[in-house]
Amino acid sequence: MKLILAATLLSLGAALHSAPSPIRVLVWDERQPEQKQGYDGKFLGQTIAENLAKDSAFAVTQAWRDQPEDGVPDKLLDQTDVIVWWSHKLPRSVSDAAARRVADRVRSGQVGLIVLHSAHWSKPFVLLMQERAKADALAQLPEAERATATFEYLNDQPFGKVPKAGDPVTPRLEKSGDTWKLTLPGCIFPTWRADAKPSHVKTLLPGHPIAAGLPAAWDIPETEMYGEPFHVPTPDAVIFEERWDKGEHFRSGCLWTVGQGRVFYFRPGHETYGIYRQELPMKVVSNAVRFLGAR
Questions:
Q1: Is the CB of residue 271 less than 8 Å from the CB of residue 32?
Q2: Are strands 191-203 and 237-243 parallel, antiparallel or unpaired?
Q3: Alpha-helix residue ranges (DSSP H) falling in 53-189
Q4: pLDDT value of position 134
Q5: Angle between helix 96-107 and helix 123-140 axes, rounded to 10 deg
Q6: What is the CA radius of gyration of the chain?
Q7: Quick one: which of 1, 12, 70, 234 is 20 to 30 A from 134 by CA?
Q8: Strand ranges across the sheet with 179-183
Q9: What is the model's pTM?
């Protein structure tokens, strides 16, 4: 009996020892008052965090803009595997230092970044997309030129002007004399419409882990429209696409590798439409956390 009990305890101990640690998720949000209209009196980020916390595979922390160090101090980032970032009206208010702290950890592969909706012009996302654009530009050059090439970077500040529909798409690489001129991406698009019309989502890569359990086609009943072209580097994968009845379309689930890390952008998420109270958009976020946080 003692031998059986000892063997059972050893087996249980080994199982406990081998159990994976939870993925440490930080949900960052501007916490705008308007969010409470669509989220039953709660903030959007609060709702996302509460939904993620229902999964025992995740250990979830919330942060917001008006906390010390913009909610992303080094100590917290050191204990984070994946950041879910939502912002809209106040991206300029996040300090450059805070944005660099986040971007540096993504580039190093320490943290994955999920960017939602209007956070397309958040400082961390813009920094990372511009870093990816520089890497892509260098890779386009003949191998013999890469070590000695001279680059001039244009549009290297976030929050540039909104492009018109016919403007050249960024990033854009051109040679002028002996210098390569790279117009960096503004991470913006020419048209949008907040009229609460439905979007029709198509799952383009059903075999991708971020698409696990998602139908081939599904609708978001009320949302804001974003219209292509989206001025970002070419994604490594476009997992979802949205279309609207007036003809617009958007690459709505895009994945990039930047340095050693990964960035996923998911377009839905206007603050007054309650999109992250819905099962399928929330499943996308949950899948993305699991994928980016995989060890």
A1: yes
A2: antiparallel
A3: 74-77, 96-107, 123-140
A4: 97
A5: 50
A6: 21
A7: 70
A8: 150-154, 179-183, 172-176
A9: 0.92
For residue 160, what pLDDT is reported? 65
Residue 165's pLDDT is: 87
C-beta separation of 291 from 281 below 8 A: no
- Give the angle 64-70-74 at the CA atoms, nearest 5°: 110
Angle, CA of 65, 262 and 88, to the nearest 5°: 30
**Six token digits for residue 187:** 């991470």
CA 260/CA 262 separation, integer angstroms: 7
- H or E element: which one contains 8? helix 2-18
List the structure tokens of 49: 């965090």
Q: How far apart are CA 215 and CA 281, in angstroms?
A: 11
Nearest to 72 by CA among 90, 98, 92, 108: 98
Q: What is the number of other CB atoms lying within 10 angstroms of the CB of residue 50?
A: 14
* Residues of the chain with confidence (pLDDT) below 70: 1-19, 156-160
Instruction: Give me the torsion for CA of 214, 215, 218, 223, rounded to 10°.
Output: 10
Taking only the tens place, the pLDDT of each residue in 269-283 is 989 999 999 999 999
